[in-house]
Amino acid sequence: MRYARILLTGVLVALVVVPAAAQDDETGDEAPVKAEDAKVVAASVMPIVERLAGSDEDAEWQPLREGDTLGRTTVLRTGLGGQAVLQVADRGHITVESGTKVALDELVMAGEMLNVRMGLKYGTMDAQLPHAAGRSDMKVDTPVATLATRGCGMRVGFSGDLGLRFCANESTWDTRTNFGRMFLNAGECTDGALTPAIFITVAGRNTDAGDPHGGLTNLEQRNLLWHGGGRGIINFTGGRDEDTTLCSGSSRSGHSEENSRENGYETKP
Amino acid sequence: MPTQQPRCTRRLATGVAALTMALTIGLVGCAPRKPSTITGGETAAVDGDNSAAFLDRVADAKSVTLNDAVTGMCLLTGAEAGGDFATRVRLLRGREVLAGGAVDATAPVTRGQLAYMVYQAADVPGGVILTLTGPSERYCLRELQYRGMMTDGLANTPVSGMEYVAVLTRAKTYMQTGHIRRNRSRLYGGGMAAP
What φ, ψ does residue A139 adopt, rounded to 5°? Predict the structure, then answer.
C-alpha cells in the first residue's frame, strides 16, 4: 500500500514537471521580442476631453489638446459633445465618442505586432486598426464582457441602461462574458446577452413584416440555431460544435469543419 | 300641453350645460396647483463648468439627485450651470425645461422627471397626446421610450447614475444630429440605441 502511494505520487509529479520543462525548452530557443510603447497622438479633439496620466493618486485631470502624445496607462473622459480621435502609430485610429470614459492600459509595439489593451467604463468607442496596416492584437474590457481579436475594426458601446452593444467591422472577435462566449465575424453585432448576430440583424430591419420566427420564443430560436431541427435519432441530441455556430466562421479546432458539414452549417473560408 | 315642450327643452339644455361645465372644470383643472417651493435652494452645483468631470462623477452615483439632474440639463442646453440650485431651477423653468411644483435639491430624480426635462430640452416632437395635452412626465417618458432614448420602465422609479449619463449623451447626440441610432425590435422591448 505504501509503495503504491509513493508510486502514485511519483507519477503525478512527473506529469506536472515534465511538460513544464519541455515547454521551457521550446520557448527558450526563441529570441525575446523587444517591446516598446506605440506612439499615440491625439489627432483631433473636440472639447471637452480630459486625460489622467499615470497611476499616481495625486494625478490630476488635464484637458487633452490636439497633438498631445499619450503614454501608457492614460485614462480619457469626454464630456457632452466631446470627441477625441487618437492616431495609433501608423496602424490606424481610435475614436472616443461623447460621454465616454476609457482607459488605455497598454499600447505596445512588440516587433511588428501592436498590442492594445483598453478598458471601457461607459460610453462608445470606435477602433479602426486594419489588417492591411500591420498585425495587431486588441483586447477591450467592458463592465460585462471582454472582447479580443487580432487585427481589428470594431465599435463598442456600454451604457448603464442598455448594456453592451458591440459591432465587428473586421476579423473575428472573441467575445466573452461571465456566462458565455461568442465568436463574432466582420459585419456582425451582438449585445451583453450574446444575442446571436442573426437576431440583431432581423431586429434592425426597417420594415416589420410580421413575426419572422413563426411564433417561436427566443429560447426556441436559439435552440434551433445551435442544435438544428434534428434529423431523427442521429442528430436529435444536437452535435453543435462551439466553433461552428452561424456567428463564427473561424475554426479553432481541426475537426470543426468536418463537424460543421455534418451538422449542416457552412464554415466560411 | 303646448307649454311642456319648451320646459323639457329647457331642462335638457340645463343638463347639458351642467355636464359641459363639469367636464370643462375637470379637464381644465380645478385641482389645487402644486406649490412651487424650492427646498435646498442654496445647494451649489458640482462640476457645473465641466461636463466630462460631471458625467464621470454622476456615473458612479447609485441614484441621481435633482441638483445633479438640473446641472446636467443646464450643461445639455448650454445654460449657465454654475450657481445655486434655486437659480438654476428658475433658469430652467424660464426655458420650460423644468415643470412647476415643489422641488428638493437632495431628492432623487425620477425617470418621469428626467424624461420631461429631456423632452423639453431637446425639443423632441411629440405624438398626438403630447400635442393635444402638452408635456407630462408619463407621456414624455413614453415618447422617449418609443424613440429609443430611454429604456422601458415606470415613471416614478429613481434614475441610476449610469442611466442618467447614457440618456444625457443620447439627448446631446439627438440635439446635434436630429436622430438617434437605434434598432427597433421586439427583442429589446421596442427600441435599442446602437453604440
Answer: -140, 130
